[in-house]
Design a protein that fits this description.
With about 950 residues, the chain is an alpha/beta fold. It has 35 helices and 35 strands. The strands form seven sheets. Strands 26-27-29-30-31-32-33-34 form an eight-stranded mixed beta barrel. The protein has a six-stranded mixed sheet with strand order 1-3-2-4-5-6, with helices on both faces. The chain has a five-stranded antiparallel sheet with strand order 15-14-18-17-16. Strand 4, helix 4 and strand 5 form a beta-alpha-beta unit. Helix 8 (about 195-205) runs parallel beside helix 9 and helix 25 (about 770-790) runs parallel beside helix 27.
């Protein structure tokens, strides 16, 4: 992806624009990369001459492959063939490696400024010239110091990083920094755990531990996990604070720490780029190691772990702190109170002053009236308009006030109109008209006259008209008084009144706002207290069953062990058998109701010394305190198993369930809550293996078995990717002609660490941890591809029979996956047969039958394996969408003979044929068995008599050598 930022035109016209190419290792939208990009671009755009900025994203985190590098190479080569790059800025390792490798070829040996590369990666770089940058110097030691400042009891640090190239490098550097800081701290890397395992481990940690999270993009299984989602879920599950190394973890569950800031790194790399663009030699600019981190904590996480702000190291920044009006605006509130008091005093003074002004104004009005009366006889400013000659007369005082010379304005004929303010013309004419027409007793007007200096002076003009006996106008005369000073005073007084009124309104509004804010603060405090109580209940209790949860158990176990170190106790780990299939067949709502009744039934078993917990899903834990003898523990375990044999009544449905219970005793089987839980879980798993519906007491031998299972599961997760799996093929031939019908695909595992591992060992483990889904798809795809190729070479037509697990069948996309594999490999659907066992069908009959019926309709065969070894096949046989019955080897071993095996095997063949099914016999090892099966009309034969399972690379040679049997061969 390319972004191009062009400098402004004015700057570009002065000199040729310089070009900066920014290469990002990761993708746009990845918060760390976006932060670096923002800081870099902001700094470059602040330059006096802004360069042209080209931005490319390598997307290495999501697509770390050779193909992606080749595609990116071609993209960059084509885009920048005609562009001269003056500086290359890279973020993180992949982009730096690319720039160093192709700088000479693609970018004319342009200088390189790197960012986001840690010290370990930098130290491994070969010698390069024309290079400098910003080291991603993880402040891990500072974060650990801050954690110890808050909680000096910390002894264990659980380190989180992924198995990517940068993740392993970061993990190595962080671990070395912690060891150098405090060798007594125990460090536990968690990169080998899946996401779910990591959350379970985090939930069980004690107060002497913390989690420290670096970058994280995929778990140990290779499953891609968005950082913000994983960080939030881990923080929600964790019993201890989750410290981070990067500030993009804030608002995603980060407790805090000394956090690297992508934006600060981008700004520093931008500064270096501008220095190089300005002419400095990169080799003379030292690599930057500091100044890219911020000490910050999340208020919500501090509250969650009851850490007060006073407990933080000095100078720490706190984000997401709830709004407090008083704390935020404390200075403003105190200032406003002081201002309010001052304004009240000012208002009182203004009111006193206004009273004085009113008295003065009253006196002034009286004085004006007296003056007006006196002005008629005074010579101060007298005007006279002789209406018979239409000439004006003004006394000398008028000229003195306005500065004009007599006759200068032609005032004798025009009067004062030429110097009257334009805005006052209309009013003056109206007042004169009203008086002359008899609507007013005298003419009165306050107007502005322009003096010779250009200044307008206010005059109060009064006059009266003189009429003759006939009523005609003779003379219009009066006086003028300069009222400029009075008008100024009145104007100032009006402004004072307006300001006083506005101040009063503002104070009233401020008082109302302060009262509203105060009421909101009180209301928010009440809501906060109620919310804290609600969250406390939710944190320690399971919402569905109402029982205490895992967190509650961990605290109560710890308290019991601390307070009663010599007392006996037992922990019962209970799991509802086959609960998943109840959920699948009856629905999750039905399953939830069953779990609620299970919780109620546990409460009925309360002995006064028992405490019941729900761990999630169908898992429950019972803590029995103060056990006097092992017999008391056994008695309760038997009562627990027996109590669940009573059916549950859910509406119109009667549900029969059983439970598997594992028991760990204190202090015999563990002296910590974590150990007791782990051992009880191991014992429960053994109870499951023992047939379910029972209980098992933990023994030390179980740990060895469990450890072996963990080892197998660990190596099994990488077996396909490492090429350790292979397929062998056992032929199936026509029972009458001996011609090859096809093969059954059988999986084999040769581990470099464990050697050859029996399918009986690893298939069950693969099903338990759901690895059977990707393994099963690999088997299906590999076998179909091989048989399709075999048929294309002319060895066919051959069919392939493949075993299918119930876990595969219950996945939502099973049918789509099968049809997609058939289409991709080019195999004819009629050449594929899926093998299932009757126990698989019984797990979820309706759902599985629907899927098999759909595949059967597409031409794919369905074989029922190990027929006759179960207890319900005949009752369901007519309802199953199958095409083939496979007789179990146990019925063939006794043939020929006088026992029950011979007639029973024949009966199975007859039943299959009566229902229109083909019948295959497994485990055929002798010619006598072959003769018997020929007599009863068995359709297909499979066994060591024909061939052992053949490695894939030897199948073609076997096909070339194989010949159908003859009568003589049967006697061999």
């Amino acid at each position: 992806m390319l972004l191009c930022i062009t400098p402004n035109t004015a700057a570009a016209s002065d000199a040729p624009a310089q070009n900066v190419l920014v290469l990002h290792s990761y993708h746009k939208g990845f918060e760390w990369t976006d932060d670096q990009n923002d800081g870099l671009v902001d700094r470059l755009e602040q330059a006096k001459t802004v360069p042209v900025i080209y931005i490319e994203y390598l997307d290495w985190k999501r697509y770390p492959s050779k193909e992606n590098l080749e595609r990116f190479y071609e993209l960059v080569k084509g885009k920048y063939a005609d562009v001269r790059i003056d500086v290359i800025v890279t973020t993180d390792d992949a982009a730096l490696d690319f720039a160093l490798k192709y700088r000479h070829e693609l970018f004319n040996d342009a200088p390189i400024i790197f960012s986001g590369v840690n010290e370990v990666s930098y130290s491994k770089l070969p010698a390069h010239s024309n290079l400098t940058g910003v080291i991603e110097n993880l402040p891990t030691a500072e974060t650990v110091k801050m954690a110890l400042y808050i909680n000096p009891a910390i002894r264990n640090i659980y380190l989180i990083f992924d198995n990517s190239e940068s993740g392993l490098s970061t993990g190595e550097m962080v671990e070395s920094q912690i060891k150098a800081l405090n060798p007594d701290l125990h460090i536990y890397p968690m990169n080998r755990l899946s996401g779910e395992e990591m959350k379970r481990r985090a939930a069980s940690l004690g107060s002497d531990s913390i989690l420290l999270m670096t970058t994280y993009y995929s778990d140990a299984t290779g499953r891609i996990i968005e950082f913000d989602r994983m960080s939030s879920e881990l923080a929600a599950a964790s019993a201890v604070p989750v410290y981070h190394t990067y500030d993009f973890g804030l608002n995603h569950g980060a407790f805090g720490g000394s956090l690297l800031s992508g934006k600060l790194q981008g700004e520093k790399s931008g500064n270096l780029a501008l220095r190089v663009l300005g002419g400095e030699n990169p080799e003379s600019i030292p690599v930057s190691y500091a100044g890219t981190s911020r000490d910050v904590f999340d208020y919500n996480e501090l509250t969650k772990f009851h850490v007060s702000l006073k407990s933080l190291p000095p100078g720490s920044e706190v984000v997401n702190r709830p709004f407090s009006f008083y704390e935020t605006y404390r200075t403003l509130v105190l200032t406003l109170i002081a201002v309010f008091a001052a304004l009240l005093i000012f208002i009182l003074l203004l009111l006193i002053h206004a009273g004085i002004i009113r008295r003065i104004r009253k006196q002034l009005t009286a004085s004006n009236e007296r003056f007006s009366l006196a002005a008629y006889g005074a010579d101060s400013v007298i005007w006279d308009f002789d209406m018979t000659t239409m000439t004006y007369y003004f006394s000398d005082r008028w000229y003195e006030l306005l500065g004009y010379q007599p006759g200068e304005l032609e005032e004798a004929h025009r009067g004062w109109t030429p110097i009257l303010h334009p805005e006052d013309l209309e009013e003056d004419e109206q007042q004169r008209k009203d008086h002359l027409e008899g609507r007013s007793a005298y003419y009165y007007c306050e107007s502005r006259f322009r003096s010779k200096s250009g200044i307008y002076l206010w005059f109060q003009t009064r006059g009266r008209v003189l009429r003759n006996e006939a009523g005609d106008f003779i003379r219009f005369a009066g006086s003028m008084t300069d009222i400029t000073d009075r008008k100024g005073f009145e104007s100032k007084l009006q402004v004072s009144y307006q300001e006083l009124e506005m101040t009063y309104e503002e104070l009233t509004a401020l008082q109302q706002e302060l009262m509203e804010q105060y009421n909101k603060v009180v209301e928010n405090q009440e809501l906060l207290q109620a919310s804290e109580e609600k969250y406390r209940i939710l944190a320690y209790n399971d919402e569905l069953s109402g029982l205490p949860n895992r967190l509650s158990l961990a605290e109560e176990l710890k308290d019991f062990i601390d307070e009663s170190p010599d007392a006996g106790a037992a922990l019962f780990f209970m799991d509802v058998d086959n609960f998943k299939y109840i959920n699948d067949s009856m629905g999750h709502t039905f399953g939830d109701r069953l779990l609620m009744q299970a919780g109620e039934r546990l409460r009925k078993l309360d002995l006064g010394t028992t405490r019941h917990y729900r761990f999630g899903g169908d898992e429950f834990v019972i803590f029995l305190k103060n056990t006097a003898s092992p017999e008391q523990t056994v008695f309760y375990a038997e009562a627990l198993v027996q109590s669940f044999k009573e059916p549950f009544q859910l509406g119109d449905s009667t549900i029969h369930v059983s439970v598997s219970v594992g028991v760990a005793q204190y202090p015999k089987d563990g002296t910590t809550a974590e150990t007791l839980l782990k051992n009880a879980d191991i014992a429960m798993y053994k109870a499951k293996q023992a047939g379910k519906g029972t209980y098992i007491l933990y023994g030390k031998s179980m740990q060895q078995h469990f450890d072996e299972r963990v080892v197998i599961e660990k190596h099994l997760r990488h077996a396909i990717d490492n090429g350790e799996m292979s397929l062998h093929y056992q032929p199936q031939v026509n029972g009458q002609t001996g011609e090859v019908w096809g093969f059954e695909a059988l999986i084999r595992w040769n581990s470099p660490q464990l050697g050859f591992v029996s399918p009986l060992s690893f298939i069950r483990i693969a099903e338990d941890c759901r690895l059977i889904v990707p393994i099963g798809e690999w088997v299906l795809r590999s076998a179909c591809c091989f048989i399709a190729e075999l048929n294309r070479k002319g060895f066919g037509p051959c069919h392939i029979s493949i075993n299918i697990s119930v876990i595969q069948l219950l996945t939502d996309d099973f049918t789509d996956m099968v049809l997609s594999v058939v289409k991709e490999t080019g195999l004819n659907p009629h050449d594929l047969e899926l093998e299932i066992t009757e126990s698989v069908v019984m797990e979820s009959f309706e759902e599985i039958s629907t899927k098999l019926e759909f595949l059967k309709g597409k031409g794919i065969g369905v074989a029922l394996d190990d027929f006759g070894t179960g207890y319900s096949s005949l009752s369901y046989l007519s309802q199953l969408p199958i095409t083939t019955l496979k007789i179990d080897k146990s019925f063939i071993d006794g043939v020929p003979g006088s026992g029950d095996s011979m007639p029973l095997a024949g009966s199975i063949v007859a039943i299959g044929h009566d229902m229109g099914l083909k019948v295959t016999a497994e485990g055929v090892e002798t010619a006598d068995q072959l003769d018997f099966l020929d007599e009863v009309g068995c359709d297909k034969i499979q066994g060591y008599l024909i061939s052992r399972p053949i490695p894939q690379e030897e199948v073609e040679d076997w096909m070339r050598r194989y010949e159908p049997w003859t009568a003589d061969m049967r006697k061999v």
